[in-house]
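Hi everyone, sorry if this is the wrong subforum. Our group has a chain we'd like a structural model of before ordering constructs, and none of us has done structure prediction before. Sequence below.
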Amino acid sequence: MTRREALKSATAAACAAAAHPVAAQGSSGPRLWYRQPAARWNEALPVGNGHLGAMIFGGVHRERIQLNEHSLWSGRTVDDNPPETLAALPQVRSLLFEGRYAEANRLAQEKMMAPMNTESFGSYQTLGDLTLEFAHAGALTDYRRELDLGDAVARVSYRVGGAACTRTIFASFPARALVIRIETTAPEGLSFRASLSRPKDATVAQDGATVAMTGQPQPHGVEFAAHLACLAEGGRVALESDGYRVEGARAATLLLTAATSLDEPAPAARSLRVLAAARTQSFAQLSAAHAADYRRLFKALSLELDTAAPQRPTDERLAAVKKGGADPHLALTYFHYGRYLLIASSRAGSLPANLQ
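Answer:
Right subforum, don't worry. Here is the predicted structure as C-alpha cells:
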C-alpha cells in the first residue's frame, strides 16, 4: 500500500461503520471500531511492521486478509550511478556558464542520467491474500471489528449460537511475522480453512510442514516467498496444497512470514528462518514482545483531552460533525491514527514508508 493509499484508508476508516458498543478489549487507548465487516478495501483495518503489512476485512464466514511485503516490486534493479558522471560534470558546468543550455542538457542526459523506462521501472505489487473460511452454524450476534491504536492490534469478535468467536491480529516487528490468533468458546471447537493465493505470477504448494507461496512479478520483478504455519490447540489439522484445514480446535495461531530477493538471493530460505524462530514462541510471548516494542514508539508522545470521548459509533460521530456538531475526540483519534500508520509502515531496516 502506498502512502497516498494509506491516507485514503485513514479517511475511509473514520467514515466506516462503527462497532457494537461493548466493553473494549486490549489497551484503553484510541481505537477505530465497527459494527460490520469492511465492504471495500479502504474500510479494512491495516496492520504492519514496516516489512510486512495486512488489511483485515473482518468477514464472518469468509475473512480476506490482503498482504503486502515492503519490497515486492515488478521492476528490475537499475544502476543509477553512471560511471561517466564525475568526468562529465565539469563539461556540463562549462556549457551552462556559456549559456549553451540545450547542449548542457543533452550531455547531462547522455552521461549523468541512469537509463530508465516504464518496463524496467515496474510497480509496487501486492503479496497476495490469506483467506480464512469458517464453518459457522447458528445466529450471528454482537459483531465487533476494531483497531486498537494503543497496542497495534486488530480484533474481530462475534457470537454464533451463543458461543464467542474472536480473532486477534498483529504484525510483529520483533518476530518479523504476521500473527493471527483464532479462538472460540464453542464446545465443539472451531473449524476453518486457511489458504494463500495471488492473482498471478505465483505458485502455492506444501513446503514441509508449512505452506509456501513463491514467485516473481513479470517481467523483471524481485523473487518473493511467503510461508504460512498453523499451530492448533486440540482438534485436527490437515495440510493441503494451498493451506490448512482445521477441525474441532479450541484455538489456533497462524504465523505468516515473507521475504524478497532485494535483500538476499534466497528469499525462501530467509522466510523459513524467520518462521522457524517465530514458532519457538507462544502466542502470549509473541503478543507481549509486540506490545512492548510498539508502545515504546507510540507512547513517546501523549496528547489527551480532559473530556470524555463519546461512546458512539465512528460513522455516527462523523455524521454529527458534518451537520455542525463538535467532536474534538474524533480529530484526536485521526491524529493518533496517522502516527500509527507511520509506525506500521516505516521501521528500522525497511524501505521508505510504503505500507499502511
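For your construct planning: Residues 3-74+127-345 form a domain with the Beta-galactosidase; Chain A, domain 5 fold (CATH 2.70.98.50). Residues 1-24 have pLDDT under 50 and may be disordered.
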